[in-house]
What does this fold into?
Amino acid sequence: MRQIITVATMKGGSGKSTLASCLAVHWHLCGRSSTIIDADPQRSIARLAAREKALGGVKVVEDATENAWKTARNLASTGPIIIDTPGFRSLATLACIAAADFLLVPVKASPLDIDRMLDTLNSLLEGDEGERRFFRCVLTQTTRDSVIAKQIRAELIEAGFPVLKNEMTNRVGYAEAALWGATPSLIEPAGTAAREIAAIADEVDSIVGIRQAA
Ligand SMILES: Nc1ncnc2c1ncn2[C@@H]1O[C@H](COP(=O)(O)OP(=O)(O)OP(=O)(O)O)[C@@H](O)[C@H]1O
Ligand SMILES: [Mg+2]
It folds into this structure.
């Protein structure tokens, strides 16, 4: 079944490209034909795919135009299509959000980021007819046992933004894997980072699956 999952926030550096690449590689390694649409003119994903490990062979399609959403819709893929968007508000990003079956919003666990995040989230999530997009926030770059992530999770939920149970913790392994154009699932499949990505992917699957079955 084709699913379009857009990864977006208005906040740069929140982990969009890292999460998008990790999920796509994970699903690819599970035997699903995942594709990434790189809709960011910075070309972070395309650059990763040009490195040695080439994201394990995940298909990457570059389209940073306002038609990126059409490119996603027109793909003959039978697996997840993950759209990585730029860290700023643009027509292309808004269109990719509107075209998505599911929106993932990475939120960096930083007290300095959260207020601006809450301000912009609402405008991002509002559909044309005022309905809410189908989305979840996911905490990124969290530190284990720190109160910061717990507090930010509580603030998001309080403000009406559901958050995935699983988090992407702060690990140098993500950036190290990227040096080779890889993700932790390719470098160390049984490692902690690969397992946390698997947990996030399974949670997304269960949420999207529940909705599609409904
Ligand atoms: N869980 C993590 N642990 C440690 N470092 C991380 C993690 N996630 C991302 N990073 C690092 O943080 C930086 C920003 O991540 P990334 O490029 O994925 O963010 P982005 O939201 O795509 O940024 P942009 O808005 O510029 O596109 C990168 O250097 C990346 O390697
Ligand atoms: Mg990026």
In short: The first strand starts at residue 3 and ends at 7.
